[in-house]
Amino acid sequence: MKKIRVGLIGCGRIVxxxxxxxxxxxxxxxxxxxxxxxxxxxxxxIKKYYALDAKICSAVxxxxxxxxxxxxxxxPNFTHYQLCMQSLNAWKHVLIEKPMAVNLRxxxxxxxxxxxxxxxxQVNQTLRFTPEYVKIKELIDSGxxxxxxxxxxxxxxxxxxxxxWSSGASWFTSKKSAGGIVMDIAVHMxxxxxxxxxxxxxxxxxxxxxxxxxxxxxxxxxxxDFANGATxxxxxxxxxxxxxxxxxxxxxKGIIRMGFSEAGLELKLGDGKYKPVKSxxxxxxxxxxxxxxxxxxxxxxxxxxxxxxxxxxxxxxxxSAKIGRPVxxx
Length: 330
Description:
Blueprint: E1 4-9, H1 13-24, E2 30-36, H2 40-49, E3 55-56, H3 60-64, E4 70-73, H4 80-89, E5 93-96, H5 104-116, E6 121-123, H6 131-141, E7 148-156, H7 181-197, E8 200-208, E9 219-226, E10 231-237, E11 244-251, E12 254-258, E13 265-269, E14 275-276, H8 285-295, H9 304-323
Parallel strand pairs: 1-2, 1-4, 2-3, 4-5, 5-6, 7-10
Antiparallel strand pairs: 7-11, 8-9, 9-10, 11-12, 12-13, 13-14
């Protein structure tokens, strides 16, 4: 069977450290054959560093005409909708970075067009493909800790992404570009809370925007009221003295936690001691994407609907913070 030909739209930090290495591990199934970035030097850098036999295109329409089968869209948030619709209309399968869009109307349009054209639309909600997080969901779903009661997640860093993770990428902290810690981190962590605990009745959130001097939230605390009677708390910051990441899941029979010791993922049943849990291997996002294109494999953990799910949490958090009271998900 011939290889899937992929074009990369956007050649920034995430492409360098994630997308190209992951695709290179699938060389028997896929090849990177076209690149585009509004900064040609970024595309040149990726091509040279990874010795890619790929054409650097001057515009997205040119890339879409190179004979590719699929695209990976890794551009600033506010560009996702237009680029995705453009790619789907050109009959290309799409793997798109989170958040999949700026609002739910855009997300619905993207999902509808992909279904109409029978194309794969996958959102890179990476926690759904990360072994430790997949294992946590498996433990909850299997009933290992009993009835879900409460989930708490803390994710913090000491600086904004444009000064750390992706130096100079100012769109991360721009309201006009749909940046901010909600779209950057809550889109992952709130999605995970809902993925584990199910339907959410209401969310109440408090956002802070003034600490870093940007016009987007840099600190968020959100409380979740789940339909199954459980509760949750999500705490996010770009302004702590040091980065940290903690996760706790409480059930009627036990506790799961991660980030509290060198053991990583741990499980405690009843009044016993915490014991390390091995997470095992899982198929990553890129393997799911390629296999879904090649053989139409079912059960993809992050189709367009999952991306919409994550975006709905972001919208609810922002709306609740704006009006000062709990809101329901749309």
